[in-house]
Amino acid sequence: MTVEKLIVRNPWFVAFAIVAVAHLILNGADVTPWDGITKVMLAPLLAAWVLVDHGSKIIAAALIACAFGDLFLLWDGTFIVGMAAFAIGHLCFIRFFISRGALQGIRKNPWVLLAYTAAAVALVGCTWSGLGELQIPVPIYAAILVCTAATSLAYNKTAGLGGALFLFSDAIILLGQADKWQPEPTDIWIMASYILALLLLTVGILSQEKMRLGTITG
């Protein structure tokens, strides 16, 4: 069975796709609290897929941390807590990618890491004056995001695209926190890129691990 068939036929992928589409519709129509409920459901569905598929528990943990991040971002006054939850999730992703040889890949092609770092520095510099109390945590979180993006690409291209989209999604959020320009409709841009980021990271990891173990044929 090919990777594509493995994904499309998987009931967890179907459930995730249904909830993702529902969330984007509810988000666009500003239907509360259902838009928030569907948002928080996204990452746990992927975590369940990982566990049922006998995937890495650290990836499931990363996705659950992202779910807590989504939860805390729903409430006023808990933005930093949500950021911390996402940071934990990213550290789990990074730990996994490093365990699969990502550092060797980065050493062979350091330009990707340098490019991501330059983009993150430019973004933080652009938003710095409007960050207020976030001036300390944002650079730390940005550095973690850069590591996720670089190590995921060193792992494989699918996961790498997911890492890049995660960085893109959070960049739009950061622009909003600093009262800078954001693309419209902002929430759709943020959530569409975030949803694809989660999916591509999960699919990239599950498919690569199955091929590594020789359980996919086609």
Automatic annotation (TrEMBL):
This is Lysoplasmalogenase. InterPro entries: TMEM86B-like (IPR012506). It holds the Pfam family YhhN. It comes from the Bacteria. Keywords: Membrane, Transmembrane, Transmembrane helix. It is found in: Membrane. Belongs to the TMEM86 family. The chain crosses the membrane at residues 7-26, 81-98, 110-130, 136-154, 159-176, 188-206.
